Amino acid sequence: MTTTLIQTDRFTLSDAERSAIEHELHHYEDSRAASIEALKIVQKARGWVPDGAIAAIGEIIGIPASDVEGVATFYSQIFRQPVGRHVIRVCDSMVCYIGGHESVVSSIQQQLGIGLGQTTADGRFTLLPVCCLGNCDKAPALMIDDHTFGDVQADGVAKLLEAYV
Amino acid sequence: MTSASTNRLTSFGPANSIARTPETHPLTWRLRDDAQPVWLEEYQAKDGYAAARKAFADLSQDEIVQTVKDSGLKGRGGAGFPTGVKWGLMPKDESMNIRYLLCNADEMEPNTWKDRMLMEQLPHLLIEGMLISARALKAYRGYIFLRGEYVDAAANLNRAVEEAKAAGLLGKNILGSGFDFELFVHTGAGRYICGEETALINSLEGRRANPRSKPPFPAAVGVWGKPTCVNNVETLCNVPAIVGNGIEWYKGLARPGSEDMGTKLMGFSGKVKNPGLWELPFGVTGRELFEDYAGGMRDGFTLKAWQPGGAGTGFLLPEHLDAQMYAGGIAKVGTRMGTGLAMAVDNTVNMVGLLRNMEEFFARESCGFCTPCRDGLPWSVKVLRAIETGKGQPGDIETLEGLVNFLGPGKTFCAHAPGAVEPLGSAIKYFRPEFEAGISRSAAPVAPVQFVSA
């Protein structure tokens, strides 16, 4: 793992991130409301939300960094540590359980050598559980990045992952 | 394997292919057979925004509220609160003129994908429903609070909002009425609890999604302290047809015997032959849904239990399939209708393992604010894991029953924990031997846990 979790370098938001966040401020009566969207903007650009971004977002919005951190750590789709180039979200809700999602998860774990919440050493994949993806008529379901797949079978996982390098 | 590389939306399913008419399927008759989204031109060609035009030209704001009240429309998010009554709670005081309409599109209830289908394929139906509702409630701004994982729904809603703006159906002076309505799509960042309406308000404000205490209700003190109405996607999608076709027509939709009015997106999943989602009149029986629409169980599987409407509803037995699908009909057999999307549990599924999976979900998704929920749900997971692996202790089932009682309605800050223990209580009631089978015979008896009432 080459990325350190504690950054000592001075952090600056890119101009693109800054202007995207400032644009969001106008959508709400109170600028605090843009905090979640701001975290998502940074995450979209960098894959995750580094420590320095927390303070920088707080500064733009005008709220304490501790409030930004409180929000960042509450929501499951905001990543406060580096993730792989591709994020696999496996639906673990009850219909997918009945559909056999546990065998799909085991198959992914075996092929990638990681557990839930972990990232492959080459930084290619991160594996996470997710709430019901609303694809229950095609269970078990999973998402890779922004794409949802249904009727996933344990022996079909390898082929699915091939497309993501 | 279906994939995003095909040009069909993931919400494509039987709802697209059953016979539908405008008179009998107000929510879904405009769906395309090829499951592509219905954009503005096609939506208007299919009578879209006609109800909005009628509402703006012919009806006063109070008349719209009264129409929805008289129609008997109830919330479609799972709780079934009368929509007109909720609307009626908005203050009459004209000085409180900044009001918000929020659409709860944070669909994360396990086994629920009805709102996804509506938003992906019929985004303008939701926008028209919100436009009419906003007019009725005098809300000048609306937000669709959409869960982040619904990527296609977000894209389609955003495009539809732009189309509506360009056509003068959103923005300033809509349809020459002098009424302004701005609509934004706000995407969430995960956590099931955001679907609780006051947690949703906190989340929209950029806070942690802990529920707020009620009262005050959002109608009085909502987002940014302003009067706010929160309605589910499917609820809002009912509004155009009610306003357009009238109350008498709407009240004639449901089957005889149903106390709920209109149609409902109902579904069946699990190992049934034809899992899917259909728009059906309230009052159809569970059996009709299960046998005629879902096609019964797949070969080699038998129905052991079913759940009528999402993870937070209780389990029922095959003998309960004759219950009518409406709030009172399902209440007669001891649980709630919930979202109306049912799940079949087949004979190969062990109830203890299934409940362990469900309580893991509820424990993970607890916001952690109140103690019974934060500590009680992980406790139930621990006990269920032990029983699942044959390491249960004598007294464990009684501990679970105690948790079902102490996390029940009225004992926690919001409805999350009561929803979590409802299926657990019913599973123990109907399938106790499966739980008993996981109690280790070699374990020394331990004194049962004493629950102390608060």
Task: Identify the most extensive interface between protein chains.
Answer: A-B, 52 and 62 residues
Query: CATH homologous superfamily of the largest domain in chain A, by name?
Result: Glutaredoxin
What is the CATH topology of the largest domain in chain B?
A: Rossmann fold
By CATH's scheme, which homologous superfamily of the largest domain in chain B applies? NADH-ubiquinone oxidoreductase 51kDa subunit
Description of the structure:
The complex is a heterodimer of chains A (165) and B (454). Chain A has 165 residues and is an alpha+beta fold. Chain A has 2 domains: 15-74, Arc Repressor Mutant, subunit A; 86-162, Glutaredoxin (3-Layer(aba) Sandwich). Chain A has 7 helices and 4 strands; from the N terminus they run ααααβααβββα. Chain A has helices at 15-25, 35-46, 51-61, 65-74, 94-98, 101-112, 157-162; strands at 86-91, 125-130, 142-144, 147-149. The longest helix of chain A is centred in the N-terminal third of the chain and has 12 residues, at 35-46. Residues 1-6 of chain B have low confidence and may be disordered. In chain B, β5 and β6 (276-281) form a beta hairpin. Chain B is globular and about 80 Å long. Chain B is α/β, with parallel strands linked by helices and 454 residues long. Chain B has 3 domains: 16-251, NADH-ubiquinone oxidoreductase 51kDa subunit (Rossmann fold); 263-346, Roll (Ubiquitin-like (UB roll)); 351-436, de novo design (two linked rop proteins), CATH 1.20.1440.230. Chain B has a 4-stranded parallel beta sheet, with helices on both faces. Chain B has a 4-stranded mixed beta sheet with strand order 6-5-8-7, covered by helices on one side. Classes of the chains: A alpha+beta (165), B alpha/beta (454). The interface between A and B is large, with 52 and 62 residues.
